Amino acid sequence: MVQFFYFHLMPWPHLPDDFDRREPTAWVTFSNRHYDPRRGHALYNEYLDEMEYADALGYDGLGVNEHHQNAYGTMPSPNLMAAALIRRTQRAKIAILGNAIPLRDHPLRVAEEVAMLDVMSGGRVISGFVRGIGCEYLSLGVNPTDSRERFYEAHELIVRAWTEDGPFCFEGKHYRVRYANIWPRPLQQPHPPIWLPSQGSTETIRWGAQRHYPFVSVFTSYAQTRRLLEEYKAAAEAAGYTAPPEQIGFAIPTYVAETDARARDEARPHILWLFRRGLKMPPHFLVPPGYITEASLRKFLASGLRPPGDLSFEELEQGGYILVGSPRTVTDRLKTMEKELGFGLFIGGGRIGDMPHDKAMKNMELFAREVMPHFKPPGWQTTTTS
Questions:
Q1: Burial (CB count <10 Å: 0-12, 13-18, 19+), residue 165
Q2: Which candidate, 131, 137, 133, places its Cα nearest to that of 154?
Q3: What tens digit of pLDDT does each residue of 134-163 get?
Q4: How many CB atoms are located within 10 Å of the residue 122 CB?
Q5: Preceding peptide of 98 cis, ω within 30°
Q6: Minimal CA–CA distance to 216: which of 130, 285, 299, 276?
Q7: Burial class of residue 31 (count of CB atoms within 10 Å of its CB; 0-12, 13-18, 19+)
Q8: Pair 292, 328: CB distance under 8 Å
Q9: Which DSSP helix (H) or strand (E) runs through 156?
Q10: Rounded distance, CA 133 to CA 118, Å?
Q11: DSSP for residue 211
């Protein structure tokens, strides 16, 4: 059985008409003079309405994430969004995908906030940990060469804070706490589930497999996703176990309409907005010096992947960067992907790029009512979407 998560980036769709010609990026240096808080107020309410509706439609979880200083995703604090959703949803898990813990100077703040959310939600929180992409280090003035060390150290402190009776002393290279003693403690024991959304560095894959953390492949081609998940499964075998489906995650922008042709026509401009505008950034923003290791850089270069922003809609579809079609087409492709990849966690976005609210609502309704039941026990839909 597959668990389905409705994931939202909460982008800023109102880019200036001359963006493509005048702006080199939607990240870091794209001026915030282009942000209108009044329009932002309306957008946040639309975005939350969509996620709340996903809970009513029977999605297993709602996904939020963290990005800074960009038009791609206006969610610098996923924990704030999780708090808003907790009080207005009843059943779905709240997946924070995730907190960029190396960007924080105080990891205990993450431990406290996630513990609060877990208690408030009655144990519905999933705690994703990410390093944050290279752009975030430029936006927040954090040395990217320390990224991985800070990630491992912050993770250790947070998990200890969740699981050990306090107070205890933590003396690390980057973080030092004399009295670690968080209140409240998380409801889920020993701690909320930890996921690792990633574009697939070798180090992250091995580290996550050793700890039995679910790995979620994001924003890459289907062939590359398959290679990354095989690498994760091999790392699990090396650690002495076989990774079950509930540890294998697959994330892909998905759009469903009444027919294949209509789905392509409706999705095309918004898919291209996502990859050509929302993800528009120079290479030195994406991968600043020191952000990734030589081994991971060599693996990335050896993949031979073209930047997805250089691809046409047809190339994105053929390469498996996106999943678009009628309910029958999307169901059939998902069944094939499930068999080939072995995933038990599917993360799909319902509002892509600058997609309008009504189109996003139709997309999520069709997906929930005509695709998801094929991956659930008989009778599932009538008991969860009444």
A1: exposed
A2: 131
A3: 999 999 999 999 999 999 999 999 999 999
A4: 11
A5: yes
A6: 130
A7: exposed
A8: no
A9: helix 147-163
A10: 26
A11: T
Alpha helices in 28-72 (DSSP H): 37-57
Please state, in angstroms and rounded to a whole number, the distance separating the CA atoms of residues 352 and 279.
12
Contact 338, 24 (CB under 8 A): no
Classify strands 125-130 and 168-171 as parallel, antiparallel or unpaired: unpaired
CA distances from 226 to 218, 339, 342 (A): 11, 11, 10
Q: CA 13, CA 352: separation in Å to the nearest integer?
A: 10
Give DSSP secondary structure letters for 301-353: HHHTPPPGGGS-HHHHHHTTS-EEE-HHHHHHHHHHHHHHH--SEEEEESS-T
| C-alpha 74 chain-centroid distance | 14
Give the number of residues written for the chain: 386
Q: What is the DSSP string of 119-152?
A: HHHTS-EEEEEE---HHHHHHHT--GGGHHHHHH
Q: 26 with 278: CB under 8 angstroms?
A: yes
Each residue's pLDDT tens digit, 287-300: 998 898 777 777 66
**3-class DSSP string for 269-308:** HHHHHHHHHHCCCCHHHHCCCCCCCHHHHHHHHHHCCCCH
pLDDT at 386: 40
